[in-house]
């Protein structure tokens, strides 16, 4: 059975009940890893791990724990790249499934945008997270779990 790892520091509140229902329904062992206390619900299936403060401390911990076939939920593209390299899976908060086939493209675009911002160019950030994004996440999570958990 797969395990779920949640990059908790930026996990949107709208997604918490969606994920919680799936965890409970499918009895999925889940780890929420963050720099500060985060909760998505009380369950014996969910472990909350608080790591030291630092830019990538939660990411390092997730990469250390995740194994082949596990699912990582994160909006952090470099983290997604690292777990995909370990043959785990990654879904972002807006429902994008990162794969071996697309992660390098997402990483290259992220790095390009970072260089543009570093040069002083003002760029638009991502659009605000909304219910449509939550719906897309729910659909992708259901599709993923249907495929890998035989529901």
Automatic annotation (TrEMBL):
This is UPF0178 protein FJR47_01875. It comes from the Bacteria. Belongs to the UPF0178 family. Pfam families: DUF188. It comes from Sulfurimonas xiamenensis. Transmembrane segments: none annotated.
